Amino acid sequence: MGLKAQDNAYAERINGTIKNEYLKLWNINDYKDLKIKTRKAVKHYNTKRGHSNLPNDFSPNQFEKLLLNLSTQERPTVIIYADGNYKVKVASSHHDFITQERPLAHNCPIIIKNE
After folding, report:
1. For 1-7, what is the mean pLDDT?
2. Rounded-to-integer distance, Cα 44 and Cα 113, Å
3. How many Cβ atoms are within 10 Å of 75's Cβ, its own excluded?
4. Domain count, the chain
5. Is 106 part of a structural domain of the chain?
6. When comparing pLDDT for 114 and 55, which is higher?
7. Separation between Cα atoms, residue 27 and residue 85, nearest integer Å
8. Is residue 27 in some structural domain?
9. I need a labelling partner for 92 at 20 to 30 A (CA). Which of 32, 36, 53, 114 fits?
10. Which residues contact 104 (CB under 8 A, 6 or more apart)?
11. In-domain check, residue 23
């Protein structure tokens, strides 16, 4: 979790999509209903919704399965920017990028559970 929205632009983008493409369009009555509909939105986002920036408009889950079948050397790389670290690193796995200093905020990895 970052200290400001710019610390994790990818997560902020997903949060905006969930809020604007799902939750704002649904009638939410209370906190319990919000939790249920948020889970429903996240599940749809990850399993059904095609993403134009992914090959073949894959969903994130489809793209993850594709990547897991590739060797580390075959995986596409991404550029990672870290606050306070002005060196840019290209990585194909989050293990490729280790900050030199103790981060200002804790890294909160996403745990994928099979349902």
Report:
1. 62
2. 15
3. 15
4. 1
5. no
6. 55
7. 43
8. yes
9. 114
10. 3, 83, 84
11. yes
pLDDT 10s digits, 27-78: 889 999 999 999 999 999 889 888 888 888 899 899 889 888 888 788 877 6
Q: Is the pLDDT of residue 108 over 60?
A: no
Q: How many CB atoms lie within 10 A of CB 38?
A: 16
| Integer CA distances (angstroms), 20 to 23, 45, 96, in order | 6, 12, 33
List Cβ neighbours of 6 (8 Å cut-off, separation of 6 or more): 83
Quick check: is 115 in a domain?
no
Look at residue 30 in the predicted model and tell me its pLDDT. Answer: 93
Interatomic CA distance for residues 61 and 67, integer angstroms: 10
- Token pair in block for residue 1: 């979790």
Task: Give the structural domain span for 40.
Answer: 5-96
d(CA 86, CA 91): 15
Hunting for tokens 């900050």 — which residue is that? 99
